[in-house]
Design goal:
With 543 residues, this protein is mainly alpha-helical. It is 59% helix and 7% strand. The longest helix is centred in the C-terminal third of the chain and has 40 residues. β5 and β6 form a beta hairpin. α4 crosses α5, α7 packs antiparallel against α8 and α14 packs antiparallel against α16. The strands form five sheets. The chain has a two-stranded antiparallel sheet with strand order 1-4. It has a two-stranded antiparallel sheet with strand order 2-3. A two-stranded antiparallel sheet has the order 5-6. The chain has a domain of 273 residues: Cytochrome Bc1 Complex, Chain C (Up-down Bundle), CATH 1.20.810.10. The chain has 18 helices and ten strands.
Length: 543
């Protein structure tokens, strides 16, 4: 391992003689990447995006982004000679007349779902492990932007076939746009070119879907990868892992071979889904007609929470300065998305403000070791999940024979109460897991060996935990806290003299207090009851 392998030195020398890039390649091909299963979640999103580009390119050869009307003369008999748009007719043509067209179309749709799912899981991994902290705040903001753009990309692509189901979603989009005060009518006119549905929406969405948003996505993904490469990858706590090193395998050949295999695995899964799992059967829905709507209409999963918010929101509108403000549409459209996306974008900076922690972090936290952060994340997931579930309140009502209004009112209460309950349960779970870790370090693990003492008492012998497990547990770091208490003369720190400063110190103390400090005990074979002590994290003066 002291010298690069010949497979690296050969091409490096060739390029160095011509471009002077040999040292750059030698250095970067040996870059070390850590090995942990959760780091593959981001790769799922990346490979899904690659598959989206490949399958999308195939579909563009035959799709016609036009609202011009034609009579369908293809091979799908139930719709033969039916009047429809060229967009819908070309989608049917791809599905039934182009060899492999239906497979590629379904692979494209499944890859889109997996792309958003992979990014969501990747974002949750970064959030729960604190991998967004300095120096990675900018990369975190890029990731939030990517997730937002992916939702818009999915919306525009979902609308292109111009079938009855996607038309219903497009109608909701138009209603949401018009609900925005002052600028709503202009946004609607920009999208639809006049009265809904008009003749311009499909061509405009097509341009946005295949050119504008993919170009921005490609640029942001490149920036995201470059920053990750320059700043080095985070790693989970463990033996010999510090803030100044990376323990793992080199990019070439280990990581490259593993990533190549994982890409093929992702491609294979999407191909199998496209082959055996039917998705978006547009021929069953028929062409879009503004006067009709499909029964049980449901959007793709990642837009379900907005659908749920619309269904739960009570009817509410007011007249203000000559404008009608429809809160029953405006709030569901903007508030849930605003809470989730704005909260994600601001959280690294809010946490830094609360804790005063401006150090660089290259070793991740275990979620249990920052219980408040983990509880906030689970509360947000619960909030999202309830809205997502109630986006299908009509299907729940029909299949489980529950009154529709009962499910709606349940959702209206659950969307507020559910996150609070989730927060409390998650916090107590994290504290319990920390106590279990402390017990493992101080008393060891159960060996299964029963020992009889001279006084006749039977005890179970405990043995020290395996070294890798122990080091993983010892990776816990105390959360910094700001000092807000008065000094010996009764004078509080400068930053804690205002109302905001006092609030900040109280939040910092609540966020950073360590209720279960880790201590290594002596393993003498006796199991003693552990009592959690209240400790204090690293404290910083507030200025």
């Amino acid at each position: 391992m002291n010298a690069p392998p010949k497979a690296i030195t050969g091409p490096s020398t060739f390029l160095d003689d011509r471009l002077g890039a040999g040292n750059f390649l030698k250095r970067n091909l040996r870059k070390v990447f850590p090995d942990h299963w959760s780091f593959l979640l981001g790769e799922i999103a990346l490979y899904s995006f690659v598959i989206l580009l490949l399958t999308g390119t195939f579909l563009t050869f035959w799709f016609k982004p036009s609202m011009g009307e034609v009579n369908y003369l293809g091979n799908y008999a139930p719709l033969y000679d039916v009047r429809m748009s060229e967009a819908y007719a070309s989608s049917l043509h791809i599905s039934f007349d182009i060899r492999g067209g239906l497979l590629v179309r379904q692979m494209h749709h499944w890859a889109a779902l997996l792309f958003v799912a992979g990014m969501t899981a990747h974002a949750l991994r970064i959030f729960f492990t604190g991998a967004y902290r300095k120096p990675r705040e900018l990369n975190w903001l890029i990731g939030v932007g990517l997730l937002t753009l992916a939702l818009l990309e999915g919306l525009t692509g979902y609308s292109l076939p111009d079938d009855l189901l996607s038309g219903a979603g497009l109608r909701i989009t138009q209603g949401v746009a018009q609900s925005i005060p002052i600028v709503g009518t202009y946004i609607s006119f920009f999208l639809f070119g006049g009265e809904y549905p008009g003749h311009d929406v499909i061509p405009r969405f097509y341009t946005i879907h295949i050119l504008l948003i993919p170009g921005i996505l490609l640029a942001l993904i490149s920036a995201h990868m470059i920053l990750m490469w320059v700043q080095k990858h985070t790693q989970m706590p463990g033996k010999a892992r510090t803030e100044k090193n990376v323990v793992g395998a080199p990019f070439y050949p280990a990581f490259m071979a593993k990533s190549g295999a994982f890409f093929l695995f992702t491609f294979g899964v999407i191909a199998l889904l496209g082959t055996f799992a039917q998705i978006n059967p547009i021929w069953l829905f028929g062409p879009y007609n503004p006067a009709n709507i499909s029964a049980g209409s449901q959007p793709d999963w990642y837009m379900g929470f907005l659908e749920g918010a619309l269904r739960l929101m009570p009817a509410w509108e007011i007249n203000f300065l000559g404008h009608t403000v429809t809160f029953s549409v405006l709030i569901p459209a903007l508030v849930p998305m605003g809470i989730i996306m704005t909260g994600l974008a601001l959280y690294p900076f809010l946490e830094q403000w609360v804790t005063g922690d401006r150090r660089e972090h290259h070793v991740c936290d275990r979620p249990r070791n920052n219980p408040h952060r983990t509880s906030i994340g689970i509360s947000a997931i619960t909030f999202y999940g309830i809205l997502w579930l109630l986006g299908a309140n009509d299907e729940i009502s029909a299949n489980f024979h529950i009154d529709l209004y009962t499910t709606t009112w349940f959702g209206r209460f659950a969307v507020f109460i559910g996150p609070a309950i989730a927060y409390w349960i998650t916090y107590r779970t994290c504290i319990g897991l920390q106590r279990k870790d402390a017990e493992v370090l101080s008393h060891g693990v159960e060996s299964g060996v029963i020992k009889r003492m001279p006084n006749g008492q039977y005890i179970e012998v405990h043995t020290p935990p395996a070294e890798d497990i122990a080091e993983h547990i010892r990776g816990k770091k105390e959360i910094p806290m700001l000092v807000g208490s008065a000094d010996g003369d009764g004078i509080p720190p400068k930053g804690a003299r205002s109302a905001i400063g006092r609030l900040r110190t109280k939040m910092s103390e609540a966020y950073g207090t360590d209720h279960v400090p880790l201590t290594d005990g002596h393993h003498n074979g006796h199991h003693e009851e552990e009592h959690a002590a209240v400790g204090a994290g690293e404290r910083k003066e507030l200025h």
